[in-house]
Amino acid sequence: MFIGHYGIGFALKKVEPGLSLGLLIFGAVMLDILFGVFLLAGFEHAKIAPGATVVSPFEFYDYPISHSAVGAVVWAAVGFLAYWLWPKGDRASRKIPAFVLAAAIFSHFILDVISHTPDLTIFGNNSPKLGLSLWNSLGGTIIVEMGIFFVGVILYRRATKSVSSSGKYGLVLMVLILMVFYIGNTFGPPPPDMISVGVISTAGQLALVALAFWVDRNRITIQPAKS
Ligand SMILES: [Zn+2]
């Protein structure tokens, strides 16, 4: 799944307005950023296999560190602890935002279980594999993923308002960029090699995270922050 993860990041702003959209989206796509890093470092492996599913041209045959049930729980716990224990400000008030960040991180695994064929392990390549294979249906994938994405964007738009034209048009720009990437991903040719997949997964997504931080800085929350 791709922009569905971004949809979760957008939606969670409604749940915890104290967290920047950038951090929420970072959490929602963190497992894919880690996958890109581990792929480039040679710790995890996947290969391009056009036709592997109707939507995705990949065989993910070895990625238990970033994409396994145990891995997802551990990364969510890392996110929780990093935010909660950050050595600045009031720790008590950071518990709920830290939990929401952890939920964003773990949500990635749930959405991937829905879309992938059974290639997501509990932990380790010999453990049972999960995957509900939504990627075998182009129509189903687009409906589910676009649905999550647009509900998320609408919730974010309702939870915030722009304080400058950057906040207004930045959000539009971000949605457009994600749509273009999504259409290219879904209908375009497969990527040339796994190195470009790793680079896009890390650098490309970190650029989108940076854009989300910038958009969020130019918008304010219009519902009172929970105390
Ligand atoms: Zn993933």
Structural class estimated from helices and strands: mainly alpha
Following the backbone from N to C, one meets helices and strands in this order, namely: HHEEHHEEHEHHE
Report the uncertain regions.
none
Beta-strand proportion: 5-15%
What share of residues is helical?
Answer: 55-70%
Strand order of the largest sheet: 1-2
Question: Layout of SSEs?
Answer:
Elements: H1 3-15, H2 21-41, E1 45-48, E2 58-62, H3 69-84, H4 95-115, E3 120-121, E4 129-130, H5 138-159, E5 160-162, H6 165-187, H7 194-217, E6 219-221
Antiparallel strand pairs: 1-2, 3-4, 5-6
Helix pairs in contact: 1-2, 1-4, 1-5, 2-4, 2-7, 3-4, 6-7
This protein binds zinc ion.
